[in-house]
Fold each of these.
Amino acid sequence: MPPFVKRDASAHPVSFPHLIACTYCDAVHQQADLAEGERALCLRCGGLLYRESQRAYQRQLPLMVTALILFILSSAWPIVEMDLKGVRTETSLRGALQALCAGHMMPVAILVFATTILFPLAEMLMMLYLLVPMALRRMPPGFGRLVRAIQRTRPWGMLEVFMIGVLVTLVKLSTIARVLPGVALWSFAALTIVLAVMLSFDPRDLWQYLEEEPPR
């Protein structure tokens, strides 16, 4: 019997390109070819394994640029103007954060800043960093780390929740003052729609595309 030889896994990594593990229950499955629009589900828990979405990232790039433009408009311009007995006041996202800080509500201000500015902007910038080189058929540095960071960051972006809160507040304020929608309110509404379309794209689909057509 030949002697047992111990191999260094780091020196000779073993990969299984045709196997995929479920992110919800860790069940391992054999990958199968799918038609356009089809999805593969886990046999154990029913979770999504992967979907056929070749070149879906190309549709995300114009959406990402549009979302960034709308985000800048939403952050820079007033959300609403209120006219109360001849006195006009403007409210913007930055002004709301400053009011929370001035009102000794720093934890709430930090939470609003993180969920409406920090995390959504971080996700958009990371996606843009990935999509532009991939559109040129190049591998962006730090691809794996950024895809995982996007997956962890996405649940914390709550711009749509903020938009619902703004609409509820405007309805209540309209009973005591004249409410005039600002530029940021319309851009926030458009941004919410664009983000809803973007959220239908799973960043894990980028892995599938890279395995099928590795960039130069």
Amino acid sequence: MVGEENEVIRNIKTRRSVRDYTDKQVSEESINTIIDAGIHAPTGFGSEPWFFVVIQNREMMQRMSDYCKPKLLSQLEDVPSDNVTEFKKMLKKEEFDIFYNAPLLIIVLGSNAGFTTDYDCAMCAQNMMLAAHSMGIGSCWVGTACFIQDNEEFMSELGIPYDYRVIAPIVFGYEGKVRERPPRQEPEVVWIH
């Protein structure tokens, strides 16, 4: 790559999805810093369409995991990818936790009224994960958890307003077993001068 890497570029390039966490809880101050980084993401028309639910209750996260696993399994039934086949095996294991036993789950929700809500909340989520990484805290966007949207009991228990939907469920915590970050493929780029 051309050019010198600065601290921001290094943070982006070294962040990865963490799937093994210690039991150490993330402090409230760190959680607030992570969310604050999220809300500084750009939004279409300055809408700021987000709402956050912070969950540190392992029993609730376990119930959510148990609810979501069979939902995803049924959707992946006919997907013929080797990676998906391995993931389906994991989903079938009773002890498998879709949240990877992380001590913290922050759900980024988006307003149904927003025109650019999905994009805005995705940029918010990326800011949050990059901020966490810069603080030595791992993260992983767990798309499987979006199935809680279909469960009125969870939505009510979590205090989610009726006009919001789950966009980005992200777990955070301190990394346990460190995995190497897989190399990125060279992108295909069309240049038009």
Amino acid sequence: MRSSPLFGIGAVPRVEGMSNPVVDTDAPLPTPAEPAPIDPPPESASLRSWLAVAAIAVGTFAVVSTEMLPVGLLTPISHGLHVSDGATGLAMTLAAVAAGFAAPTVLVAAGRVDRRIVLAAMMIVLFAANTIAALAQNFATLLVARVLVGVSIGGFWAIGASLPVRLVPAGSVGRASAVIFGGVSVASVVGVPVGTMIGEWAGWRVAFAAMAGLSAAVLVALLVLLPPLPAERAVRPRDIPALLRRGGVVAGAAALVLVIAGHFGAYTYVRPVLEEAGGLGPGPIGALLLGYGVAGVVGNVLAGAYAARPPHRTLALAAGLLAAAVVVLAVSGTWTPGTAAAMLVWGLAYGAVPVALQGWMSRVAPDAPEAGSAVFVTGFQVAISLGSLLGGVAVDAVATSSVLWFGAVPAAATTLLALVWGRRAGR
């Protein structure tokens, strides 16, 4: 198997041709109804096909960047709307909860509706959410906007992740997947520092307005560039519970929830940590977040380069580095070199995490791409909401820096789980 980084993004592992894939088939999905005939992808990918893939990738960047925006703008939002830092973290929690419910719900509700239309609808919802957030005069209005963000994230990500095989020929699926999932990874590590810089330059409302503009541009691109994409088959409510009876899927979901909850429990409040414990101002914080983002892209590329290897090893290494980085950040105090090094390692480690987790899911559920995407997105969003919620409790009840210790423990547990599952799968 070969990984094909494109635009600096690590590839998601391809299933076809994989040696000894770990697939637990004790509980297969129900036999689907006869799918409607669809046109097969062409033998060679055209420029229009790659433009369609790029449009979906920018769409994933838009939805995930919008979700992460409050991380870099947490302090200005809390001051502007007169709420505490811990309460402002609910903007992350609520969006993630809504996304977790939306991923399977939108897939089931969409039925056989053309996937191009569904993606366009999700982008309209995102445009409305960002516009409402930019104009919000109180915290309750902002939370309404964040619920709409969650609906857009869950529906767009779950459907968009399964479309590479519909847009390009088999030989290019791995590269197309790399581009689409790269939008998620880049948003996770670059969207926050860019949003922070916009917020510092023009205010947090302008940052949300900028995302509304990007959402409108993506909507036009999707309608112009995507071909008709009739559903191959409708996802039924029983498909996802059937998938969760597979041991490999459950282990992967558990690892996902642990490491993502630990990461976002700490990362949601990284700006107050750097301000209070590190004694840093907006300029240095923006530079550190940008360095974190660059390191994250490097981690994404490195994880993609090792995509052919068992993903549990990549996940174990990345989660271990993440745990070590947040511990160093917790003890570095006002020692700026230690803080900078910890942020760079943290970004490097987290950049590899989504690639490794998606690789795990691809190996244990290669026969159910849309249902597998729903499990992945729902688990991801549940973990974000759990982490940011518990982190907010720790900030308000204990101390801001306590979230770093909260993040380290589940990340370390993920390393242990990945190694244990790897040994079991190897046998």
Amino acid sequence: MSLKDVFLYLSENEVLNSAAQKYGLQLGAQSVVAGTNIDEVMESIKALNAQGISCTVDNLGEFVYDKEHALQAKDNILQVIERIHTEGVDAHISLKPSQLGQDIDEAFCYDNLYDIVKAAHAHGIFVNFDMENYARLHSSFTFMERLLEQFDNVGTVIQAYFFEAMDNLEKYKDVRLRIVKGAYKESADVAYQSKLDIDQNYVKLIEYHLLHGKFTSIATHDHNVIEHVKQFVAQHDIPKDQFEFQMLYGFRKEMQLQLAAEGYNFCTYLPFGNDWYGYFMRRLAERPQNVALVTNELLTKKTKTLLAVGAGAFILGRLSKK
């Protein structure tokens, strides 16, 4: 049993997710989310913009199984788009197709995505499709491909732990891409399992897209990867306007400011809303070292209790299967 397995189990536990929503602010959620409503996230955007940092905004949402909740999520995202436009801030949208009905009805989901992308396009705002587990991967790519037939403000994420990641990177090299390591538990049939293999493929993907791609968003908190990228772009005369570094809100704040001050494009990923728990657990699963980055701010006594209960449930579940 690995620490990653525990965090992934916690991210998929609806009971703990509901408890975290109810007591989010008391648990210290404000350390990892940029607000619980649109007004608060707009203030977070303005504060970061003032420090030379752009933002991508994610309206958090888990376990969307009915059209009512999907339509509510769409409405929230449309409101964010309108506020970005009217207030003239430097920000774009990140969204998950699953929150907009991907697991309910694909035609319904596409219609929701279309409305969002169309509204964003009218204001010159970019929309990034976040990627989730392998079961949703190819339908998410299909959504993007259909929308790219009419709009040019859509991009997506390539996850380095998938064997097919390089094929997808080459296929979509003319699309703005965010490159990540991957944060879900995937089968050995489709994904690398060792950290070394994932890390090596991650750097390989970054280098390829920097040399051949349209625009590269390098999403990492790993200072070793960041230093490697700095050296690589200098060696290959890659201009700074061809890429950006990305980190999550609340993580490595000093490094975010330092990179922006050094003249690199920097974008902070801003999740907002009460549904923060699954998102945060996946970030810890993706890189358990992230615990140390927010421990002092996030892990209140109540948070530790919630994590302990979840870990205990995970262990009992594993033992019951033996």
